[in-house]
Design brief:
68% of the residues lie in helices and 0% in strands. By secondary structure, the chain is mainly α. The protein has one domain.
Length: 87
């Protein structure tokens, strides 16, 4: 979920990515397909915001399935290389 202000600071986005990363691994995501999809969508949205803030290119908005999963991993590694702590 995007914050109510127009451009969130990178610290907020990074904190959301860490929170959502933990939620992706929690029991609720394992028990509910809807919950898992909602958390994954929020995580991807925050990855996009972080990418745009740090100048990392991404194709998360146009890919789906395994292609999106692979792109997510690539973007995570690029963000880590840019100095963002994701976990």
């Amino acid at each position: 979920m995007r914050p109510p202000w127009p451009d969130p600071c990178i610290e907020y986005v990074a904190a959301e990515l860490r929170r959502l990363s933990r939620a992706r691994m929690s029991g609720l995501c394992a028990e509910s397909v809807r919950w898992q999809a909602a958390v994954q969508l929020a995580y991807d949205n925050n990855l996009q915001m972080a990418s745009e803030a740090l100048g990392v290119s991404h194709q998360l908005a146009v890919l789906d399935g395994m292609d999106r999963d692979l792109e997510r991993l690539r973007v995570e590694e690029e963000l880590k290389a840019a100095g963002l702590k994701l976990r």
